[in-house]
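[job 4471] stage=fold_predict status=RUNNING
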Amino acid sequence: MKRIVMVFLSALLAVQLYAQKSQPINVMTYNIRYSTEKDGENAWSKRKDKVKALVKFHDADILCTQEALAEQYDFILENSDFEAVGAGRDDGKRKGEFSPIYYNKNRFSKKDGGMFWLSQTPDVPSKGWDAMFNRVCTWVRLYDKLNKKEFLVFNTHYDHVGVQARIESAILIKQKIQEIAPKLPVIYTGDLNVTPETEAIATIKSFLSDSREISAEPPYGPEGTFNGFKFNSPLKNRIDYVFVNKGFKVQKYGVLTDSKDLRYPSDHLPVFVKLYF
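[job 4471] inference complete, writing structure tokens
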């Protein structure tokens, strides 16, 4: 037990030393649930302000969302400090769900960015393997004006039906990250629709670290990230993640349970991490 305490204190001290030399980056990944009036009391029109307020309150420097339709993508940008990279998965423009990356335009400048499909033909709109829908991964290369460093962010949403598609998507993303960002610090986020013990997660952990597992401070909040709009959900299933490579240290990791009037702003909970170079 004493050894465990010493290891924890050493890790915490290491992050504090990094903190003295660099400014933290607050990263949030959040499946905001696509806009459909079929959700009734949980329809986007009734919760969109809560989603936006949550993001603002927690001072997200980088926000990665999933299931955002064009109107939702635009709404988050309105009257904010964000700029964004992303497009619809059905046509690479405005049709279908986005997996966008928002970043604080006052702090970061975009150097490069793009999107690829999770399929055997990643350069064109397409559906891969046994997936039910087209799926995409969005990426951006940013320059941090405070820390004077470049890094990359990747954000995705794996298929919810295709088991093989999730396995193959992880393999493809590993290849793409290694091609696009062979040396720079990397953040990889997403609703991966798989729990931590699966092959798809093992593939990602073969070259990136799960921020929950390497956080200097104990993880905050529940383990599960999917609530299904049920306020009494047991919150056991963790399917939303933030991974990093060795270019980052994780100070804090949390699953946020912000709510109002016994309702969550989305059917997923946001995952929040505080990172240092």
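[job 4471] summary: The longest strand covers residues 108-117.
[job 4471] exit 0
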